[in-house]
């Protein structure tokens, strides 16, 4: 679904070149849940932005759904969820979710049907008429996920979507996201700073390191697809978490 070969991205800045990505090789299969974890500046967001054709690599190859990222963007191959929910306060939740559908020219009837479907998917049925400020932070983030799902793209790119939420809400949304992934079969790319979140959610964990931004470990998770929250106390889970932590420690500069 996503394939990167020797991918480089160097930003030219006033202070000299910044190697945001260097020699990144990664294959993501259809239906995988892949987390990117690593210290600040290791290129997690930059990699997601390359997939979304929001940045242009300076070297190597990248294909998304067999196409160039730009063609994939035009074919609406992905939905993107940001750290902040980014909902328009003057639009209702349904109005926000509908926005990409309006832009893409879906009929009014189709818009209505899809809004109802995705509200159901993120467990917000009945909240379409509310305004964003009438919802909790966790509900707003779910609405933003619904918006990214509304046009049924095969790929969902999520950049630290739950980073600003408290741990209990985050646990709940992690469980919900796994259910949603199981129901929809989407391919998910997910940026996080949390080791338990990465291990709990993923079929594949990509550990990254900065200066230059690169991949230092790729861990294929042996955990079953069905994952109750208390799987986090099992030896298998703790073993993967340990490997991620070791990878992070090895690539960390402590500056
Ligand atoms: N437009 C830009 N111009 C110059 N440098 C940039 C630009 N975008 C990102 N960078 C630099 O590229 C490197 C990687 O940034 P990126 O945002 O991808 O890291 P990250 O791993 O997502 O970090 P964080 O966890 O803090 O979000 C950083 O050193 C950053 O300063």
UniProtKB/TrEMBL annotation:
GO terms for molecular function: ATP binding; ATP hydrolysis activity. Belongs to the ABC transporter superfamily. This is Sulfonate ABC transporter ATP-binding protein. Residues 4-231 form the ABC transporter domain. InterPro entries: AAA+_ATPase, ABC_transporter-like_ATP-bd, ABC_transporter-like_CS, ABC_transporter_ATP-bind, P-loop_NTPase. Keywords: ATP-binding, Nucleotide-binding, Transport.
């Amino acid at each position: 679904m996503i394939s990167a070969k020797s991918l480089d991205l160097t930003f030219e800045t006033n202070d000299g070149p910044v190697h945001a990505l260097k020699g990144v090789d990664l294959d993501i299969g259809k239906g995988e849940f892949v987390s990117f974890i690593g210290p600040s500046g290791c290129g997690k967001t930059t990699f997601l932005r390359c997939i979304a054709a929001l940045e242009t690599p300076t070297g190597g190859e990248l294909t998304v759904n067999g196409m160039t990222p730009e063609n994939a963007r035009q074919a609406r191959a992905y939905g993107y969820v940001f750290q902040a929910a980014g909902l328009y306060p003057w639009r209702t939740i349904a109005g926000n979710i509908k926005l990409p559908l309006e832009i893409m020219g879906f009929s009014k009837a189709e818009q209505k049907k899809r809004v109802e479907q995705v509200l159901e998917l993120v467990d917000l049925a009945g909240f379409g008429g509310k305004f964003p400020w009438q919802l909790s932070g966790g509900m707003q983030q779910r609405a933003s996920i619904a918006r990214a799902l509304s046009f049924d793209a095969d790929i969902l790119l999520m950049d630290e979507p739950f980073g600003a939420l408290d741990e209990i809400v985050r646990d709940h949304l992690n469980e919900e996201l796994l259910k949603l992934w199981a129901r929809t079969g989407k391919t998910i790319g997910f940026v996080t700073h949390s080791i338990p979140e990465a291990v709990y959610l993923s079929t594949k964990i990509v550990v990254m390191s900065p200066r230059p931004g690169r991949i230092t470990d790729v861990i294929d998770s042996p955990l079953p697809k069905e994952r109750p929250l208390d799987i986090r106390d099992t030896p298998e889970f703790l073993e993967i978490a340990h490997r991620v932590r070791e990878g992070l420690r090895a690539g960390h500069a402590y500056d």
